[in-house]
Design goal:
With 204 residues, this protein is mainly alpha-helical. The protein has 13 helices and no strands.
Amino acid sequence: MKTRKRLEAGLQELGVLDPRMAELRQRTGTPGPRVRPAGYTTLLRVIVGQQLSIHAAAAIWKRMEVAGITKDPVAFVACDDETLRGCGLSRQKIVYGRGLAEAIVIGDLDLGRMRRMDDEAAIEQLVLLKGIGRWSAEVYLLFALGRPDIMPADDLALLVSAGRHLGDGERWTPGQLRAEAEAWRPWRSAAARLLWHAYHVDVI
């Protein structure tokens, strides 16, 4: 769902499957396309941003860009720990970042081949990496690979938004969201985008 046209088509089909989603879109408007480049840089940024505020993660990332390690996994592998700590990376994130970079460099992680995998196979491949859980893998597939049928059901904002706009106001559980989202196949990514959009617009 990398283009506005594709997203709007998905939202249109979603509204047919579930009139509540059509009504929610009417109230909140259509989310704009949000695309991340597929590859090492986006996965590294996911790792860096975990459990940090947006501003803290951005500051660390800027220092990493200056150090020249955000675009080339070979450069990250070659970078010493002192430099990485100076960028603001924790010991754990240094381990995770090295694991990602090394997996790409030695060929254990083939991001080009991943484009041809089905969703579950791609997720299974990604979660083998330390620092990449299912939520991170699902977000990568949704925003970087543009997969149309992904629902990151562990995402707090999605759970809050679903409860607020589709339920009784109480935050849903991941199980509730997964069960409800079965009716949205094969457009669960469009549903996730709309629920995120509604969360940020905060229209009730």
